[in-house]
Amino acid sequence: MTLTQLGAFVLVARLGSVRAAADVLGVSEPAVSRALAALRQHLGDQLVIRNGNGMELTEGGNRLFGIASQMVALGSEAEAAVRMAHGAPQSVRLLVTSTIAEFIATPLVEAFGRRWKGMFETTSGVASAAEMRVLLPNRLADVALGPEIATDPTLGLASEPVLRYRMVVVAAPRLRLHGTPGRWQWLVDPSGTDPDSDTGRLLRAYRVPEARIRVFPNQTAAWAAAADGAGVAPAVATLIAGQLRRGELVETELRAIHGCWYATTLAPDRRSDGARYLRNFLGTPEAMHLMCAPGTGVPPSRFRPPVYVTIWS
Fold first, then answer.
1. Is CATH 3.40.225.10 correct for 3-82?
2. Contact 148/132 with Cβ under 8 angstroms?
3. What CATH number was assigned to the domain covering residues 88-163+260-310?
4. What is the pLDDT of residues 134-171, one digit of tens each?
């Protein structure tokens, strides 16, 4: 029985499918299935079984789950302790939404590194709210920046507001919109597929059917398609300011909504030093400026963090 196998089991149990666990780990579905099969054979129990479209824990799986979660978390703590003993920088793993990854994560991580030069080795990765809710309590990540994580208090997570913003809906100046918003063509980045994101809630509020939504690899591509007249696109007002100023896009008649990015970590008494330092940095004027200023646009695929594969080594 290995940490790799236990980690696979915990993620499948938390996320509800082998595919979701494989996506988070950045490995193939067969790799997760093999790890789970080896654990099942070792323990002589199916642990998780298919139930409709999801997975259900057996009695043995239920008993193992809490212990396995603690073991995976302790494994992460053990690795950190050894790194510190060797004088290596402490690993800090930041989870962000696709929009934050595209515009903000790189300058934010670089600025944090400059402030605490040599103390921390920071990586960032894209995750949905559901994935953040799983990775943080299992110590597979340290800080999440994105939507508020509404969670079971027993997981010991704390979500604190960091930056409030306006979300507007933009379109090409020449585009003529007809009917209700639910009949428009909506152009979104991957955060639009996350029901807990502000974009996901916006689409739900306007009852936009899946057939009227197009998902692009990143926000920049969605805005470019909107500028070409392909539809409307949600956007954080500060990030779209340049395109609005140049007249490439205009705000639609829809009223802007107010959103907020939250920093989520383990409860203060359980945070690592790296999580505490990064959380504090997110409240500084320098970090606020970086979150408000538009970036150059970097594909979210660049931000898959090493944390997702470390339990397989």
1. no
2. no
3. 3.40.190.10
4. 888 888 889 999 999 866 666 788 999 999 999 999 99
